[in-house]
Amino acid sequence: MPFRCPSFTISCDNACYQQYPLNAPVLRYKLLLLAWLLEQGLVLSATIIAAAVLVSVTVGVHVTGFALILKSMVPPSPAPPMRARRIARLILSVTWLLLSVHVAEIGAWALFYLFAHCFPDAESAFYFSGVTYTSVGYGDLVLPNRWRILAPIEALTGILMCGLSASLFFAIVSRIHAVVTKQK
């Protein structure tokens, strides 16, 4: 009599029942449990691999964005007259560039959700990813059971990336403050 699990089948023929005549019902349940555990292990492994890849892509995008921002926006030595307009332009430029980096990271998660058929359309996938990445977590859209562990991982990754962005702002403002203080 075969025992079916959604992805595969385990069968126990008469020889199996003859070997364990008193425990046949128990053996059936053990085989079903084994099949279920194997399937869950495969699903969990795929989810963990997907999470590791997505976190790596997110960090890679963030590091690349950081490098480009630092290379293009922050000169090796600050130019002496730091006026209010120049400071505002620098902070505003960094803000928009960092927002672009975060949107690209949210988009990477959203593309995964879309291709994994977690959501019916790109708008839903991007919305869920944005809400999760920023840790807003409305809860109006949820991932399928197979992928739901990705939501807290995305939220934690988003918190860390926002923290890195805040550290860049702090470094830039500290540098500006040091230059302005020297000028006085």
**Class based on secondary structure composition and strand pairing:** mainly alpha
The fraction of residues in strands falls at under 5%
Model regions low in confidence, pLDDT < 50 over at least 5 residues: 1-22
For the record, the count of structural domains works out to 1
Explain how this protein is built.
This protein is mostly helical and 184 residues long. The protein has a single domain (53-183), classed as Helix Hairpins (Orthogonal Bundle). It is built from five helices and two strands, in the order ββααααα. The protein has helices at 14-19, 24-73, 84-115, 122-133, 150-183, and strands spanning 2-4, 9-11. It has a two-stranded antiparallel sheet with strand order 1-2. The termini are far apart.
What does the secondary structure layout of this molecule look like, with pairings?
Layout (H helix, E strand, L loop, with lengths): L1 E3 L4 E3 L2 H6 L4 H50 L10 H32 L6 H12 L16 H34 L1
Antiparallel strand pairs: 1-2
